[in-house]
Amino acid sequence: MVNRRELNPDASPEAAYGARLRSAREARGWKQDELGLRSGYSGRHVSGVETCTKSPTRPFSIAIDGAFGFAGSVDSFEREWLKIKQGVLVQGFPEYVALEGGAAEIRMFEVGVIPGLLQTRAYAQALDRAAVVRGVITPEQADQRLALLMERQQALIRPIPPMIIAVLDESCIRRPVGGPAVMKAQLQHLADFAAQSHAMLQIAPFSIGERRPFDRLVNLLTLPDRSLVSYVESETQGYLDRELTSVLPVMRGYHQSQAASLSQAESVDVIHQQRKGIS
Question: Residue 108's closest CA among 245, 7, 201, 211?
Fold first, then answer.
């Protein structure tokens, strides 16, 4: 074949993505222009991703999955893109993110820091900078983390957005991150989030003591088919669970945390009080 560039899938994760894209395309007997037509991209763009002159993106990966019929499967190119972007993110997280973007409802519980979906860019950058200083990640990986977080947030902006329910331990709003200006803006962002029609925000106060059912990040997704998925994360690993028998106890604990927490109106008042006290 004239001008066919040989690919080396071992050169980088992006090269492996490109080589697999070419393999899947050629297995169907499609030219680059035909795959482009089926996915809404040009044949030149497909060629660029295959040969690594263009980086794969999430929208491109989703479109390619649609063309190949890979959406939601183990062969998903979106899943492969997430693996490229995850950097040093914990195991199990890419699989969770792939489901999060299409969820009908998202429930979050967090201790110590504002959950990623509710973080401002400056707050997220402050956390990533601190991780770089500690030597946990490189500056390049910090950039990857931030880019992925911004993509996750953008994926939830839809004509019919998902219902997002957040229960935050009081430590999330008390712990200063990034300095006064960053923290003030973050707290205002939380209050603005709570004012949206598809949002619910509650603070689990320190006073609930031992009644707090969780001591780490817990996320629950309700998917469009009404099935439930739980995601629980430790310092080094995330665990995604689709089994109803094990997801239901997590959901029960989540409801218990809501019952023990402040109402949304009380929670927003506490957030405004905390914001006013920052100097």
Answer: 201
